[in-house]
């Protein structure tokens, strides 16, 4: 995911007003988030170690160690125990993504460091994208587009039949902010929605299954949108794929590590699954080449969250979380 067109360091303007609270920007060197930077620089003194390329990262942290109380993550740059060790005054880590598997939450808790995530900023757009992937797989929109562009309609005639979405049994893995938005959209399509999650949600009328295999057995489609943790790594396993069956479809808008990618490739190439829509992969940006030629597979470059509206919403949320922190007010999207 990238929110600008390049990595030119000169594009970022850092406010050097020493009267403003200091914010540490934590990012990979090639990843800039200009909309957020340009918003934050009006309110804070931004410290970006990649603006001082001749100074080693740890040396930069040491120089500002006692003045930095808040860190903002751009993208999925890891925040490890080692990162925290170099920032003894740190009290807040502000995430800019829905998932926070790149943050060492245990180390943060031990240090009394609060963590925030993207809250609801991405939920609607990711849910829209999940439904779009599902529609594409079932109705073969991308494959039919390629069929027309290659001239095959003229030479081979009508394109093979697709599958309707209404009436399908959809199992949602993770009924959080995104999962609930997906459920509401697919209910409107006439799908029969059920779910699994860390715990049952009594306020939800959708059927609940305590494990993914049971959910897959009762589903035509699995939509994966839970957080990636040690417990959920490869939660969609070989056994889950077997339970879903030869006509089953997997949509993943969560994290690549939620699905056993090697097994998924095997099931798809051997015709043991009906299709897949994948926005995320285990080793991004590497995508298994075996999937390239499969018309029942739709691939996307971790793009579900990237709309103008979601970026604006996220930027405002990050700003408000920081303002709340420096005003001793409750954070807007704390991670429990």
From TrEMBL:
Its EC number is 1.1.1.79. GO terms for cellular component: cytosol. Keywords: NAD, NADP, Oxidoreductase. Belongs to the D-isomer specific 2-hydroxyacid dehydrogenase family. One of its GO terms (molecular function) is glyoxylate reductase (NADPH) activity. Transmembrane segments: none annotated. GO terms for biological process: photorespiration. The keyword Magnesium does not apply. It holds the Pfam family 2-Hacid_dh. InterPro entries: D-isomer_2-hydroxyacid_DH (IPR050223), D-isomer_2_OHA_DH_cat_dom (IPR006139), D-isomer_DH_CS1 (IPR029752), D-isomer_DH_NAD-bd (IPR006140), NAD(P)-bd_dom_sf (IPR036291). Residues 64-335 form the D-isomer specific 2-hydroxyacid dehydrogenase catalytic domain. It comes from the Eukaryota. The lineage of its organism: Eukaryota, Viridiplantae, Streptophyta, Embryophyta, Tracheophyta. SUPFAM superfamilies: Formate/glycerate dehydrogenase catalytic domain-like, NAD(P)-binding Rossmann-fold domains. Residues 131-304 form the D-isomer specific 2-hydroxyacid dehydrogenase NAD-binding domain. PROSITE patterns: D_2_HYDROXYACID_DH_1. This is glyoxylate reductase (NADP(+)).
